[in-house]
Amino acid sequence: MKYALIIPDGAADEPQGTHDGVTPLETARIPAMDEIARAGVVGQADHVPGELHSGSDVGIMSLLGYDPLVCHTGRAPIEAAAQGIALGHDDWAIRCNLVTVSDGRMQNFTASHVDNHAAKALIECLQQDLADDSTWQYYPGVSYRNLLVHRPGSGQAVFSATTQTTPPHDLLDLPISEHLPGGPGSKWLCQMMDRSRELFAGSDVDSQATQVWFWGLGRRPGLEPFVERFGKTAAVVTGVDVVRGLGGLMGLTVIEVEGATGYLDTDYAAKGQAAIAALHEHDLVVVHVEATDEASHDGNVAAKIEALERIDECIVGPIHDALVSLGDYRILVSPDHPTLLRTRTHAHGHVPIAACGTGLVADEHRRYDEVTASGSSLVFERGCELMPWFQGGLSGTA
Predict the structure, then answer these.
(1) Average pLDDT, consecutive stretches of 10 residues, N- to C-terminus, the chain (398 residues)
(2) Sign (positive/negative) of CA torsion 223, 311, 332, 346?
(3) Domain ranges, residue 244
(4) Same structural domain for residues 278 and 196?
(5) Which one, of 239, 201, 208, 202, lies nearest residue 118 by Cα?
(6) What CATH number corresponds to the domain at position 299?
(7) Going by fewer Cβ within 10 Å, which terminus of the chain is more open, N or C?
């Protein structure tokens, strides 16, 4: 049996007043996703427990069958794994965004998608300012996505599970003073953010970044390998570090695709073809596409609809056709969380799911969207139960 999971990141949304009061999924031309709905079952899943920040680190962990309330330690250590940064038992990784703050408000959590060269120069500037303090280390990533690692050595850990940070994409147009880090170690983070503001103001680097913003901190999680958990080999195709990191920590083969940018300009067709090739070597292939999420962060409904249509045409359709030709199969489409165009940020709540293939008897639903899914009796209140159900380990209802 071959399996494929397609994750259109943040695809679930609200009805849009600019589009006759329907959601982007209802508006988009997505015949391949609708075909999965017609041939199989439609339902809902909640991948992000209310106690945790809504994000792909939590949602995709749940989608892959791991309970985030048990396994999740923070977003940054997952991204550290993607970059090959080794974390000791007492080390803490912290996500370090390059952001634009103006008049005390978070104007842009990506610093207008600062280019890699400028981002690296700014991170190097921060590292040089640390001088001989070996307990802190900045690591440049891609564009605005960077990391800070704290290695206390034999000293006492600065942070704890009660340290509080807020993702910058949850603060668009809001005063940052009301959302600064709190709890153990927060004074260090606030001081380093203040220092970054001074350094960037005096820098000759051409960028929109005015400072760094720290969030998503945690220690390395211990995740059981996917093949041991489910008895199946798996690969993941993605353009973003957090999903690469999750894949690596779970023992999945991480497939790099040229042109996979993690943004609206990603090469959808290349990702689809890479997934099809991987199906010949693995039992399960996961394809994650960030474009729908980025469109919501931009508040761009037209771009979100276009991204959904490209995912459908270049990824869902070709992969479904390939699976049919390989024999017994199942295919599943599910976002990791909603991302709302209205607020331009992630939200909690159910997302629509659709699955078809060997052993799945078609229900009465004929479309893939939020409204159709809300009328289904197939509901996974604990999203981590969806993966074992998808592989035939549950009875078919949750």
Answers:
(1) 98 93 97 98 98 96 98 95 92 97 96 96 96 90 94 80 94 95 96 97 96 96 96 96 95 96 94 98 98 96 98 98 97 98 96 97 97 97 98 56
(2) positive
(3) 2-72+223-390
(4) no
(5) 208
(6) 3.40.720.10
(7) N
